[in-house]
Design brief:
- This protein has 49 residues and is of the alpha+beta class.
- It has a domain of 31 residues.
- It contains one helix and two strands, in the order H-E-E.
- It has a two-stranded antiparallel sheet with strand order 1-2.
- The longest helix is centred in the first third of the chain and has 10 residues.
Length: 49
């Protein structure tokens, strides 16, 4: 799944999971997505100066 997300970003195909996290429950064979916010203290995902 991570490789497919990378392909989507590189090729511009589809909609990447930017700002969302895909959760897969292997026991129940279910997936769900949850929104995640950027950490303002993070140099990579936080506010850029």
């Amino acid at each position: 799944m991570m490789a497919l997300e990378a392909i989507k970003v590189i090729t511009g195909a589809g909609e990447p999971l930017e700002g969302r996290l895909l959760v897969y429950d292997g026991l129940a064979a279910e997936t769900r997505t949850v929104r995640i916010g950027a950490d303002p203290e993070c140099a990579v995902c936080g506010e850029r100066a």
